[in-house]
Amino acid sequence: MADFFQAIDQFPVTLKHWLMTQLGGVLPEWAEPLVSAALSITPILAVFPLMFALTTVIERKGLGRIQNRIGPNRVGIPLTNIRLAGFGQFIADGIKSLIKEDVVPRAADKVVHFLAPIALLIPVLLTYSVLPFGRNMVPLDLPQTGLLFFFAVGASTELSVFMAGWSSRNKYSLLGAMRAIAQMVSYEIPLILSALTVVMMAGTLSLSGIVERQMWHVAMPGIPGDQDGLLARWFLFTPWGLVGFFLFLTAAAAEANRTPFDLPEAESEIIAGYFTEYSGFKFAIFFLAEYLGLFAMCGLGITLFLGGWLPPVNFAPFTWIPSWCWFLGKLSALIVLFIWLRGTLPRLRTDQLMGFAWKFLLPMTLINLVVAALWHLLANSIPLVARWPLCFAMLAVPYWLLGRGFEAKFTKREYRFAN
Amino acid sequence: MTAPVDTSDPKQLGADTDGTQFMTFHDLAYDAGKTVFQRKAQPVGQGREGELLEVAMGPQHPSTHGVFRMDVVLDGETVVKLKPVFGYLHRNHEKIAENTSYLGSMPYTDRLDYFCSLTNNWAYALSVEKLAGLQVPERAEYIRLITAELTRVLNHTCLAGFLLQDMGALGTPLMYAFREREKILDLIESLTGARMMCNYMRFGGCRCDLPAGWLDEAKKVVAEYPKFLDEFDALLSGNEILMARTQGVGKLSAELAISAGITGPMLRASGVDYDLRKVDNYGLYSRYPFRVPLGSHGDVYDRYMIRMLEMRESLKILEPALKDIPEGPVVDPKAKLRGFRPKPGEAYGRIESPKGELGFYLISDGSPNPYRYRVRPPSLINLTILEDMCLGQTVADAIVTLGSVDIVLGEVDR
Amino acid sequence: MTLPFAIIAGLTVGSAIAAMSLRNLVHCALSLVLTFAGLAGLYLQLNAEFVGFTQILVYVGAVAILIVFAILLTRSTEPKDEPATVTPWIGIAVAVGAFLTMALAVLASPVGKRVAAPAPEVSVKTLGQKLMTDYVLPLEVMALLLTAAMLGAVIIAMKDKEGQR
Amino acid sequence: MTPLSGYLFVSALLFCIGLAGALTRRNAIMVLIGIELMLNAANLNFIAFWRFSENPETMTGLTFALFSIAIAAAEAAVGLALIITIYRHFRTANVDKVEDMKG
Hints:
The structure holds four protein chains of four kinds. Chain A has helices spanning 2-9, 11-24, 31-66, 89-99, 110-127, 146-155, 157-167, 171-202, 207-213, 239-255, 267-270, 280-305, 316-320, 323-344, 350-377, 384-409, and one strand spanning 416-418. By secondary structure, chain A is mainly alpha-helical. Chain A starts with a helix and ends with a strand. Chain C is an all-alpha fold. Chain C is built from six helices and no strands. In chain C, helix 1 runs antiparallel to helix 2 and helix 2 packs antiparallel against helix 3.
């Protein structure tokens, strides 16, 4: 029984191995690494854009539900009455954006304008290469620099945003690009710092290594969990992990331009931000890159805090579910969370956004780093029951203090009435 | 005789191109009276030409509420100059009205503030009744009161939705607001036959009586409304982001508001107790006790909250009014529809429309057409103050401030 | 010389030439980013993964952004009627002279023909330990320098702003 | 594997391109870009010499390169802040036109 589920779990890996052995005799030697890489990339290129396509529909339908609307429900199979509950919408959208006229402003810097969406999509796709999607499923396992690779490649998207904003020769584009860069640079710091907490505790930069550290059978001082190994030791279940996860999620929302941090493309202020002047397929690529960036951020958050592809508990029906299903499931849950946020919250202002990053997130991540170190140091001297509340209190108090500064400024008001 | 303007020379086309001096509408408006406030505008562009960014927001812009343009000069994200430009929707409303019969203008008033056509109708009917000395039967007065307050509720509900939309809340509050608006629009449709272009009031009454069962429907809507308002309040009024985005933004002092002729909720948000329903006591407002909420900061949050509170007060009027409405004719039988020629004279009728003081000034020379027909549109006059509220704040604030002024371009441009 | 090296080196040098010779400053900055990325590729070729990715994180993610911001803030899209360079021939002659000297030195030196030892195992852990033990003083000095640079940059930018008002 | 001389040539080329740019371009930002190129060329040398050294375990070149990257970042931040200040004062980023030290 377990073997059967094991086989399903490892199905993509075995398939690739089988293909490579079949091709082994046929291919010239120099082509083998290329084919192997292509085989590793193909599932990523197949699964995540498809997920993007489905997410656009789900997002519209979800927002519709939040807003007392129905959302897209028409497009199905052409020439029939089958509507697929609107899930054909993304195909129609894709065809539409493919055949739409590609308008380039006359004053635009044509080359840079053309390169910007590509320069945005490629780094975003590259970030996927270090994410462990399942057991033994890392396209590019960098044992020493995995997380650094993720952030280095992720940081280069800022430049593509600038390219798009600057080359359009549109003031809204430029404003949007400036906002986006300022926001990405500012939020990268809390993002990296909250991830660094995990690196410090796991002792590795490799993402698959970090997932393995959250497994039940790896003895790690300082991580709670059942000693028999029934409960997972996700970093989320530690005080620093819990706080770190929410800090990470906040910074990730800003990094991925999601509400309430979607200022770079705040349509009520600056039309569509840096891609105001993009139409047709280039716009679709921006859209795609944005969502893929969000998925990659969510994937990283899952890997760092939510145990990656690990099930929450270590007994039968849960462990039968393939590891990549767990990963995709957690990813979907986070995406739904972001859709929910988008349907609920208004948007912050630029200065408030910056203030939030520098005055709240950054101190919190730094304190979190210290608390994590303390958690590790106290592992052998204080029992878990006392250590957990202690460390949590050490995070809750600064949270309360920092938050009070924001609350004091804005309060609900009492209104008087004229006689 | 001035030299002809050379259109190829940007400097002659208007001083705005060099970024140093241009006159905004309210410069003109204030210079006419005595200036009681100091302009916040600092000398702009001295040695910093290269660092400032001039952006024309609109006429095609998602959040200028129609075809309206703001020529904004930005220092980074800070607004250092803002010039409202309107007139894209100018339809010659006043001139057309002077060339058509009195009754012929009634449908045109619908198009002024197309959200609140019933109050527009009322204001116009009121001024013509003043001009011709007509009396309105009590039932018609009740209908006018009810429809006007329903319109106020409708307008304020939508405004809250639009304001949140400007704040980036992606339609959720707007859709909640529209759901409620739809209920009121259904009532208005069953009463007048049209959802927005009602053309309902007549001189000396209303066009038709209430359809059967209308009052019960209206009572149901009014009874359910506080629940929606509670929900809206819980969802929005205490939201930290909303408070952070609106408190202290777009401040308007009471002195400036008075001297600029601001009316309506915007004036009351600045703390001035001035509500035409109380001041003029027109219609049947004296019969029903209601309170006038006043703000103290004059910022966007106050403007938003004043409207939320006003809706509750309107419901307090509506509830008893729907019960008290008597039977009787809805239009003064003596009022002539055909060959309506008021005696020579002039009249100014005004009401508290949801957006402020809406007045119609009419001069009759005894002919079937008004000799002079003039609208005092609250949207336009409330808008003139925009630059003073936005200077020194960010673009995002300017958008929210514009949203809080509550304009409808049909009324601004006429 | 291997093929990947030739491609990356060609890209690096080519984009460096573009970065120094294009008229439009934003294009220069974008070419410079390509140079930085090419250099990171060379570092990867040299088995210095950590430094390579740090190079991308710092140079592409931060320095390049700073440069384009500075270009936009100073409106340095140069006027067309003004030559972009001063006394080009002297500068280029100096550079060519320097290059010839270095190239001759490299050719003459026996070090140049040295073949690399098998790739050393560089783990981040050992790198960190080195930084915290052998190189702790430079690390502290660096931290001090970065703090000073940050303060300095903030003060330079701030003072002027106050002067304006 | 490419021999050390290959890397040294690339590094020398980069250095000289940076030098030529820094010497000839008028715009202060371009001068700074030239200096950045020169620093990067030096970095490449550090890494190359580390990789081809007798005992790479000491990681001298690596750490030096890391420090050099940090210095370059600081240099860029301060340099560009200075350029922006100069621009605000003189309304130009042209190095030739900024001759008046009194400000």
